[in-house]
Amino acid sequence: MFTGLVEEVGTMTGMRRQGEAMSLSIAAKHIMAGVQLGDSIAVNGVCLTVTHFTKEQFTVDVIPQTYRNSNLKDLKSGSKVNLERAMLAGARFGGHIVQGHVDGIGVITGLHRDGNAYVYEIKPNTRDIFKFLLPKGSITVDGISLTVSDVGEDKFTISIIPHTRAETVLQYKALGDTVNLESDIIGKYVAHLLHFKDSSVAEREGKVNESFLMEHGFV
């Protein structure tokens, strides 16, 4: 589990592809302290497992499912990536619960300044993500825990402070670039529980409505 607080921006030093499978080598400094084989590291918000490491870099494997559902396939030698180690029990929890399981890819369709804030407009590649988006709710963008500013028909916006931009790969992003998106896990679980019915409930209830919620103690 992660918190969405990026610890370091790493640099891609190598990549091997075999079809839709990849092996990525990433140079880093701060996060290499105490790294062990099998550790989980979020790379642009994708939870990956360390398969090899030295003092200066680590290697992770990317399976076809991850390749297809994230923007890791767009990386090349020299690309910058957000890095976060899995959180420690008892550590300060500064962001929100992040699994490192990408729900979709977004395209940056707008970028402007609003005072000291940088405002990014993002268009997801799936409509499913919108049921988990609400103003002032949480969203993970390339592994960064951020607050949703506004939600439109097919886009949403985030506003970030200069420090967040300077310490993450967002400083390198431009119009048309892609970002990995992960919805708030709490919202996903609530939606799943509300729509999950055993056979007896399914026979009595055709949809989730007020009476269904009252009967099952939600209201």
UniProtKB/TrEMBL annotation:
Gene3D superfamilies: 2.40.30.20
Pfam families listed in its UniProt record: Lum_binding
Residue span(s) of domain Lumazine-binding: 1-96, 97-194
Keyword Transferase: yes
PROSITE patterns: LUMAZINE_BIND
Keywords assigned by UniProt, alphabetized: Repeat, Riboflavin biosynthesis, Transferase
Enzyme class: transferase
GO molecular-function term, one example from the UniProt record: riboflavin synthase activity
Pathway named in the protein's UniProt entry: Cofactor biosynthesis; riboflavin biosynthesis; riboflavin from 2-hydroxy-3-oxobutyl phosphate and 5-amino-6-(D-ribitylamino)uracil: step 2/2
E.C. code: 2.5.1.9
Substrates-to-products reaction catalysed: 2 6,7-dimethyl-8-(1-D-ribityl)lumazine + H(+) = 5-amino-6-(D-ribitylamino)uracil + riboflavin
Domain of life: Bacteria
Lumazine-binding repeats: 1-96, 97-194
Known function: Catalyzes the dismutation of two molecules of 6,7-dimethyl-8-ribityllumazine, resulting in the formation of riboflavin and 5-amino-6-(D-ribitylamino)uracil.
Protein name: Riboflavin synthase
